[in-house]
Design a protein that fits this description.
Blueprint (H helix, E strand, L loop, with lengths): L3 E5 L4 H10 L5 E5 L9 H11 L3 E4 L6 H6 L1 H22 L2 E7 L22 H16 L2 E7 L2 E2 L6 H11 L2 E5 L3 E2 L2 E2 H12 L9 E4 L6 E2 H14 L7 E5 L19 H7 L6 H11 L1
Parallel strand pairs: 1-2, 1-3, 3-4, 4-5, 5-10, 6-9, 7-12
Antiparallel strand pairs: 8-11
Length: about 290
């Protein structure tokens, strides 16, 4: 009998990438968007998961607007913490696995070397705090889980930094991008492929835990945008004539961002043999699809 996978958050960029990757496998998959499972409704979510009775739940949903979370703390707390706790507790009751996507923003950015899974967390924003509380809730539930922390997701789907840059580049001759925040861009198709690879390991409960998966090379937002426009030019996209690096102080935002949120993905390679995301290749893949 095929294992049944329930995807929660199927309309987001990672959810759509999971659809692209899982459609090539032998798994039976049920894709649910907010219309089918609104995780903010805790009671209804629990009933639906129990009725579906999956072998694996992949939670790709989140309150991901970092700045809006500062003004909508209750909404971020509900979606990223309380709803995640509800899903984890239900997975424990059903006896199924939970694969949950978390964030590099659980760290404060004060490191000078890539963050490992066991490093101390200290989020600076409401978003980061709510994501960390979600992690704690999963670990406290007693369910079989994998928490995948990732960073700077981009793809051909949804709203993301790369698509925003392409849109701005087509309409602005001069662009300024923050150059003093560093992380690792991650092509969402790559993390979807990583999740599919991980599925083969799930019978082994020794793999329960937290993992990092992100891009293979650190950069700043400015360097990321520079690479986007460099490749976009080759594909005939309109790009700005002048791209300028500015400091975080020159681009004020409601939420504090970690200045250095580079993740170490070695554990993911050691346990699953999964290489980090080649984000420069990912940019080319997105441009081809757009």
């Amino acid at each position: 009998m095929k294992e049944l996978i329930l995807i929660i958050g199927s309309k987001g960029q990672l959810g759509q990438c999971l659809s692209s990757q899982l459609d090539k496998t032998y798994y039976e998959v049920i894709y649910t968007s907010r219309k089918e499972i609104n995780i903010a409704n805790l009671g209804a979510t629990k009933v639906k998961i129990i009725n579906i009775n999956p072998s694996i739940v992949i939670n790709a949903s989140a309150y991901s607007d970092v700045d809006k979370a500062e003004e909508n703390k209750q909404a971020a707390e509900l979606i990223n913490h309380l709803a995640v706790a509800n899903i984890a507790n239900t997975c424990k009751e059903v006896g199924c696995w939970l694969i949950h996507i978390s964030s590099d923003y659980v760290f404060d950015g004060n490191n000078n070397q890539p963050y490992r899974e066991m490093d101390i967390t200290n989020p600076k924003s409401i978003y980061g705090k709510s994501k960390l509380e979600g992690e704690y809730a999963i670990q406290a539930s007693g369910c079989k889980y994998l928490i995948l922390r990732t960073a700077w997701l981009f793809s051909e789907y949804g709203n993301n930094f790369m698509k925003t840059m392409l849109k701005l580049g087509a309409s602005h001759d001069n662009l300024s991008v923050v150059g003093d925040q560093f992380g690792c861009p991650t092509y969402a198709q790559d993390i979807a492929k990583a999740i599919v690879r991980i599925l083969d390991y799930l019978p082994d409960q020794n793999i329960i835990g937290v993992y990092h998966f992100c891009g293979d090379e650190q950069c700043s937002w400015f360097q990321f945008s520079h690479e986007i426009f460099k490749q976009a030019k080759e594909f005939g996209f309109l790009i700005p004539s002048n791209l300028q690096s500015i400091s975080s102080k020159e681009y004020p935002a409601l939420a504090a961002r970690p200045s250095y949120s580079v993740l170490d993905s070695n554990k993911c390679f050691e346990v699953f043999g999964i290489e980090p995301s080649d984000w420069k290749l990912g940019i080319v893949s997105v441009l081809r699809k757009l």
